[in-house]
Amino acid sequence: MERMLLRRFDWLGAVRVFGHTGNERYVAPGQVVVAALPHIHQEGVFYQPLLDPGQVLRMEEYLQELTSPFARIVVRNPTYEYVWVKCRLMIEGEEVGATLKRLHEDILSYLCPWFRGQAQMAMNLPPFKRSELLSYVQSRPYVKFVTGFSVVRMYTDDEGRYHLQDSARDEDGPDEILPAYPWSILIPLAGNRVEIIHEPAYHPPEVSSLEDLVIGSNLVLSDDVQPAEDLPTGSPGPVSPEPEAPVEYRFVLKL
Q: Helices 96-111 and 130-138 sit at what angle, rounded to 10 degrees?
């Protein structure tokens, strides 16, 4: 089905098909979820490639003509999940602004190699490991020392609720940073919280607070912000997955 769609629609850059088998938490019996994104045409500036409503409708109508009338076809955009890096950094030289910009671009290249010419990789990448991302940052030629390193993952469900999971809450927990859904794509959030230090002293990772989540003008906390640990985790599909038990907050993300 994936190759058939790529041949039929020349504006498609990547397609993945998810059936119920193997995805029981996310896809209902008799349903087929098709996640897709269009070709990338602006490789110079990162953005989130998304199907427009007309493209989604054309794909669904085409697939309904070819499949059983009992099959329920859902075409959707991938779920973009944001990866936010927090650390303290000793750098080579004194150009702090340029160095932090370069760090963000390097993290972008690490997490999103698909953005420059290989869109089909976007939903086929294995989960990355926190330790491997740390090693990658440490290997940058402008980095002298890294400490207090942690990774925060944020995503939204189809009900508009954002969820947050912070590796600093459990340093001895799983090393892999796992996405919430099979059709998720992990991307870096602009504005990584990096503190410049001048001595190579160890600092433990710091758990994110609500104040940490105010990243320039990107994040606006609502007036009634409360930890939402008891909120059910929503699912973009018809079947709600079991809660992952991350710490969650109600907020609005401006991107």
A: 140
Specify the residue for token string 């007036």.
223
List Cα–Cα distances, 66 to 1, 70, 255, in angstroms: 10, 12, 38
> Is beta strand 79-91 parallel, antiparallel or unpaired with respect to 143-156?
antiparallel
Residue type, position 59, single letter = M
Helix (H) or strand (E) holding 109: helix 96-111
pTM, full prediction: 0.79
- Whole-number Cα distances in Å, 161 to 17, 37, 164, 184, 254: 25, 23, 10, 16, 13
Give the start-to-end residue ranges of the domains of the chain.
2-76, 79-253
Q: What is the pLDDT of residues 118-175, one digit of tens each?
A: 888 888 888 899 999 999 999 999 999 999 999 999 888 878 888 888 899 877 778 9
Q: Is 136 helix (H, G, I), strand (E, B) or coil?
A: helix
